[in-house]
Amino acid sequence: MDAQEDFRPRLESVVEMNACIIGEINKKVKPSDTLWIVGDLGFGSRDDDEYFSAMAKLRGQIRCTTVNLVKGNHDRTCVARLFNNCRNGIPNVVFDARLDGHRFTLNHWVQFSWPGSGNPNFPAYHGYGHHHGMMEERLDKLMPTRRSLDVGVDNAFRLFGEYRPFSVEEFVEIVQSRFTTASGGV
Q1: Which domain range does residue 143 map to?
Q2: Angle (CA) 141 4 19, round 5°
Q3: In this predicted model, what pLDDT tens digit does every residue of 53-111 receive, in sequence order?
Q4: Residue 16 lies in a domain
Q5: Which of 54, 81, 104, 122 is the most buried (most CB within 10 A)?
Q6: This prediction's pTM
Q7: What is the number of domains present in the chain?
Q8: 51 within 8 A of 45, measured Cβ to Cβ
Q9: Cα 73 to Cα 42: distance, rounded to the nearest angstrom
């Protein structure tokens, strides 16, 4: 399936969607990289054993050795052992991390304030998911110099045309470009 095709909620499209996303992850992330998923790895069966089995299959297809999950509203506690690090990303629990020298707060939900967000001398960034890229234009209007970004695969598709993860470098470049745009630069 081409990454630009529409994913509708029917069984064969969920299978195709998963294959597409896993393929894009594996093209972008090296085995030695660290991948952070900010929630909603899967949505499925009401049976925990069936759900765990499906999530284990997805996790097993990701070639990256270190995969961390910030749990979203569709992730169940039973999947925690599939990940190197699993934190509850809802409702207000966040995970602070240093990634390539930058401070990040990772959460499933968008926040208007996070640890370090008001410090202009040591900028801290916020990565989130949940909204499937649908809040970005509204947030850009409300906060044109915000240091936050929806890092879900839907927003990656909106920006890059691929359902894939963001690198730290891409994240920082996108956020920093807001300051140039807001100040009237090119």
Answers
A1: 11-182
A2: 115
A3: 988 999 999 999 999 888 888 888 888 888 887 876 554 455 666 777 788 888 888 88
A4: yes
A5: 104
A6: 0.83
A7: 1
A8: yes
A9: 10
d(C-alpha 127, C-alpha 37), whole Å: 10
Question: What's the CA gap between 74 and 152, in Å, rounded?
Answer: 14
CATH of the domain at 171: 3.60.21.10
Please enumerate in sequence order all residues whose Cβ is within 8 A of that of 165, keeping only pairs 6 or more positions apart, or say none: 25, 28, 29, 35, 36, 151, 153, 156
- Pull the structure tokens for residue 149: 């970004």
Tokens of 18: 């998963």
**Spatial contact of 178 and 145, defined as CB atoms under 8 Å apart:** yes
Rounded to an integer, what distance in angstroms lies between the CA atom of residue 168 and that of residue 182? 22
Tell whether 6 is covered by a domain. no
| 3 state DSSP class of 3 | coil
Token look-up 């920006």 returns 159
